[in-house]
Amino acid sequence: MIIRYVSVLCLLITFSTPAANRVFATINVGYNPAGIAITPNNRFAYVANNNDNSIPGGDTVSVINIPTNTVVQTISDASFNQAFSVTINPAGTRAYVTNSNSTTVTIIDIATNTVVGVINGFDGPSGVAITPDGNTAYVNNYGGPHAGSGFGTTVSIVDLNTNTITDTITVGLAPVSLAITPNGDFVYVINYVTGNPGTGTISIIQTSTNTVVGTISGFSGPFEIAITPNGHYAYVTNFGSNNFTPVGTTVSVVDLSSNWPNSVPNKITDTITLGTQPSGIAITSNSRLAYVTNYNTLYLGPDYSDLTPGTGIVNIIDTSSNTVLCQEFIVGSSPGAIALTSDGKYAYVTNYSSNNVSVINILDTMWLNVCR
User: Fold this and answer.
1) Burial, 337: exposed, middle or buried (Cβ in 10 Å; 0-12, 13-18, 19+)?
2) How confident is the model at residue 297 (pLDDT cuts 50, 70, 90)?
């Protein structure tokens, strides 16, 4: 799998600002935590432990109790194989875990935290998007045992009532992540391609016909996509090359207004510069703020030579102006995915290299001013 987050040897250096260090808790989980998802009732977070070094018994999913911020269960199953992402259905009854080094997606029953099924037929799956009615899932095939890592070109459609693949759609090269609009009408698939500047794309799937109805170009190693809850915009992190250079430093803003009658086409309308190798992104339920993890800050230059190695940062974007706020959260090493509680209180960040999850009190940021 990609963007198999770069080596543990790549230490992170972070900004040291007076407003930073508002991390509420740090929770130890499994090896190389990658994806994370929170149940709709805000009681539990599920963490996919990628186990990139193939440590025996290390392919697991950690279950965090949110009120206590403790790991209450570690789920193991033979189907887990470099678990990469977790997606929870709208009803909060099932968690779907992509196994990026295989052909499967594992299904967890949230009530019992047991594996109740495995869906086969994918190729290096790395993301799942579920329709609002909970009946259909779209799974991107980044490339794995069949095509080879980074050489996949398809999205699989899954009937979640029968847990079977019903169709396959051709998209761009190396589809790494995807998101569905709040109304369920469109799925936006980001295609990493080569990681070089401007080569990445988005394929737009219309769910009523399951066809690609448009392509947006101009991304640079896109890694993650988040759509504002009001459905107006998509924010895409530009990770850059998985070979360290060229390094990504931006988030692209895509206007989704063509999803409405008599409006302009989907297109990139803004580019925001923040940290280095931005990877995960999540948007508050009021669509006001976007939280972005920066996987690697080694390339910031001599002005940052006095900063502590081994830590990462999370930036905040004010979506009303697409500007970066002063607040920068110091988290763990190689922060990747980020998930927000729906009540707007906390953000959970997986730290790939330090094997833990940072919990941020996001209410502390609501009053902050634009910094740069």
Assistant:
1) buried
2) low
SS3 labels along 14-34: CCCCCCCCCEEEEEECCCCEE
Q: Which CATH class is domain 23-365?
A: mainly beta
pLDDT in tens, 213-267: 999 999 999 999 999 999 999 999 999 987 778 889 999 999 998 665 545 468 9
Place of tokens 């399951």: 210
Q: Which of 274, 204, 277 is nearest to 234 (CA)?
A: 204
Backbone angles phi, psi at 363, to 5 degrees: -65, -25
Token code pair at residue 124? 């290096």
Name, in order, each residue with C-beta under 8 angstroms of 298's C-beta and a sequence gap of 6 or more. 10, 11, 12, 13, 276
